[in-house]
Amino acid sequence: MKYSMMTVGPVQENTYILVNEKKEALIIDPGAEGKRINKKIESLEIKPLAILLTHAHFDHIGAVDDVKARWGIPVYIHEREAEWLSDVKKNGSAFFGQHVTAQQADHLIKEEGKLTLGSFEMDVLETPGHSPGSVSYYFANAKAVFSGDALFAGSIGRTDLQGGSQRVLLESIHSRLLVLPEETVVAPGHGPTTTIGNEMDSNPFLSGF
């Protein structure tokens, strides 16, 4: 599996396009600039299978409807944030003077576990704290985890939004992410990629917990 990252929108959110050897694709967090994302997908000559959302904040869902409509693919999100897609207060867009919504998701994630889509196999990890329904997608074969806004290079997600909790977030990071192999690449919702080992060694938010 290979993946490419597109940084989109005013908040510089990272959208990921994952492609396997069969030219199947998964789109993680199409946050904005739907036309640009669709053009990228077209240029790669791949077959999208699904949209996976790490959480429902506005900067991660702004292009969901555009991508879904173009490719006719289902959307996955944790059930705790199913209603956030259509609620501008819960998804945070109202507080930034915007009105960002998305249609109802097709599949609600109810618990952690294995998820298979086409030839993709992944572990869905519940990593709440930044938001109540935040999840991370771990691909063991690719040695990569897509952490949304839970864990960043040298930082962690903000916890001052609705349903946020720094205690819960730190517990999530330590119990779900830092237990992954140290060489695992962390592909976050904002900023550069890092590795689990790097964050264990140098992330100032994770020491002393």
Automatic annotation (TrEMBL):
<feature type="domain" description="Metallo-beta-lactamase">
    <location>
        <begin position="12"/>
        <end position="190"/>
    </location>
</feature>
<dbReference type="InterPro" id="IPR001279">
    <property type="entry name" value="Metallo-B-lactamas"/>
</dbReference>
<keyword id="KW-0862">Zinc</keyword>
<keyword id="KW-0378">Hydrolase</keyword>
<dbReference type="InterPro" id="IPR036866">
    <property type="entry name" value="RibonucZ/Hydroxyglut_hydro"/>
</dbReference>
<keyword id="KW-0479">Metal-binding</keyword>
<feature type="compositionally biased region" description="Polar residues">
    <location>
        <begin position="192"/>
        <end position="209"/>
    </location>
</feature>
<dbReference type="InterPro" id="IPR051453">
    <property type="entry name" value="MBL_Glyoxalase_II"/>
</dbReference>
<dbReference type="Pfam" id="PF00753">
    <property type="entry name" value="Lactamase_B"/>
</dbReference>
<feature type="region of interest" description="Disordered">
    <location>
        <begin position="189"/>
        <end position="209"/>
    </location>
</feature>
<protein>
    <submittedName>
        <fullName>MBL fold metallo-hydrolase</fullName>
    </submittedName>
</protein>
